[in-house]
Amino acid sequence: MAAMYQVITPQKPAAILKGVGPKVAEKLSSIGIETVNDVLFHLPANYENLSVMNLADAENNDKVTVMGTVMTEPAVAYFRGGKNRLTVFMEIDGIYVKVTFFNQPYLKDKLIVGEEARLSGKYLKHKLEINGQRLIYEAGGGFRVTYPMGKVMHSKTFNKIVAEVFGGFSFNYDLPETVKAKYRLLSVREALRLIHFPKSPADIKEGRRTIKFYELFMFQLRLMEKRQKERVRNERYIIDYDIDELKAFIDTLPFGLTGDQKKCTNEICRDLKQNVSMHRLLQGDVGSGKTIVAGIAAYAVKTIGEQTAVMVPTEVLANQHYQSFTDTFEDRLTIAKLTGTTTRKEKMEIVSRLESGEIDLIVGTHALIEDDVLFNRLSLIITDEQHRFGVNQRKRLNDKAHRKNVLYMTATPIPRTLSITTFGDMDVSIIREMPKGRKPVETYWRRYDEVDEVMASIASEVRKGHSAYIVAPLIEESETLDLKNVQEIYHMFLDCFGEEQVELVHGRMKPAEKNEGMGRFERLEKPVLVSTTVIEVGINVPNATYMVIFNAERFGLSTLHQLRGRVGRSDMQSYCALISDPKTENAKQRIDIMTSTTDGFELSEQDLEMRGPGDYFGVRQSGLPEFKVADLAEDYRILEHARLSAIELSGEMREDA
Ligand code: ADP
Ligand code: MG
């Protein structure tokens, strides 16, 4: 059969098609259509079903295509500005309806009393009216397709050009047979044909399903190619760590690793042992235990006498990590800390110990990327909250490596669909399971007039010796207003708890003041902290069991989740109260989601669904790929299948994420 067709390669210029002369080619080119493939993938934006339906079956506001008899002489009314409306009464499927057409006065001559007419429009069932869109003269059923053509040419004309491709050519590309069979997909050719020339709604749906798959499949293949390129293969990347020593260290930990921690540790250690550079993202919710996984990797590197650097975005986090690593390793590793507040003298000393190789593990902020910070043998670079650093900052640190093994960590759970796409060039390890004994934070929603009840339960927690965070929203543009807001709330708590129990911290304070206030809360001198979202990152007070978020509707899901992550950090039951009178459906939905789950990944997926992938990371900058038909938020399943197929095809056996 193929012999009857001329085989096209998709890169051939559109001009080889009949009906595309130099003039038309130029017009097409002006809207980005250069090749035959561009023609094929310029898909209809809209379909109008030309098959006549029974008006009695239509619902209010349905778009309908119907046929009926003209009952009255059409009347045209003219308005100011040249606008006009034609009104005619018709009997359609036994229903007497008023049909109107805006700005199509010439239809008057086509609508003849006693004769039949076919038309499409919007049915206002309650008023027995149809807002006519157009009269239909085409014979038969099927669909009228509309292409996004600007003013370049008529959709009908373009559709004819598309028809040329299907009339005379066969395709030299398709999805692999095995993939088509497995997922019951059409050939790409047939799918495109159905999308351009559908006979039924099912045609459109089936065609689109195949093309979605095809787009995502090709995309995955390209990503894999890119990843292969970025993973440098060289014997020198083999870190032949001492497995016995590593196991002995893991045995000293006061707890057993969770299944997910073990899995991630294995993935990282396998990377280290391989002859390729590591380029891996470790994802896990706040409190899921990423730090120890990173620590184990650092220990592995140390068993061959090499160094690890851990870079974090803030001083607070640097202190925390430093403390936690020191507690964990005691004297097994030599650990140092370098931040913006390190004195010049201390820094010089640290740098010389780094250069001599005495320091095994250094924790620091941006201070680590400065040019005068040099290492002996830096073989593992760990970046926490990686999204808070710019590409160049990360690169500057990475460039100091003796062997470039990079582990990025993030506590922002990223929906799997997005992680496959935005981080497609990285391997991904996920800790989803929380350490045993953690109690999910009990979350509930209260309206403003129910605040008293919340105050009472906070008071009862405070009596037990626990602490509470009270968060008031801060929105940059209206700092004065927010300040008032925080202060109001502060006074409310003062009235209830008294000065000796309540601390206030907000963004307008001097850093020193802020630190003092925060310090009193951290040392448990004051159990109630009223603040703006300055507490979002880093603070760790395991004694805190209560989180109250005022105006909860003003926060996005991921911020709410981060804030809630400040409590539930011990074996005590913790609580989160969302105070809100949500005004919009969307706000209400967010609050409902928060009260229904504490799983960050589930939250992020629902967030993605609500916001769409474009919005999710703050539009475009993330470099999300654009697809013609596929939708990352919606086509999760297809992406998954396309990815597996691509992995199978490329023979890549790596099992990640
Ligand atoms: P994060 O993923 O937010 O960085 P951390 O690594 O700080 O989480 O871990 C949070 C707390 O849980 C720490 O106090 C840590 O010691 C503890 N932890 C980590 N892993 C386990 C485990 N498997 N069992 C019990 N506690 C654990
Ligand atoms: Mg952490």
UniProtKB/TrEMBL annotation:
| Top EC category | isomerase
Q: How does it assemble?
A: Monomer.
Recall the GO molecular function terms of this protein's record.
3'-5' DNA helicase activity; ATP binding; ATP hydrolysis activity; DNA binding
* Family in the record: Belongs to the helicase family. RecG subfamily.
In Swiss-Prot or TrEMBL terms, this protein is called ATP-dependent DNA helicase RecG
Q: Which InterPro entries match?
A: ATP-dep_DNA_helicase_RecG, DEAD/DEAH_box_helicase_dom, Helicase_ATP-bd, Helicase_C-like, NA-bd_OB-fold, P-loop_NTPase, RecG/Mfd, RecG_dom3_C
Q: Which keywords fit this entry according to its UniProt record?
A: ATP-binding, DNA damage, DNA recombination, DNA repair, DNA-binding, Helicase, Hydrolase, Isomerase, Nucleotide-binding
The Helicase C-terminal domain sits at 450-609
Q: Which GO terms describe its biological process?
A: DNA recombination; DNA repair
Name the Pfam families on file. Answer: DEAD, Helicase_C, RecG_dom3_C, RecG_wedge
Helicase ATP-binding domain spans which residues? 271-431
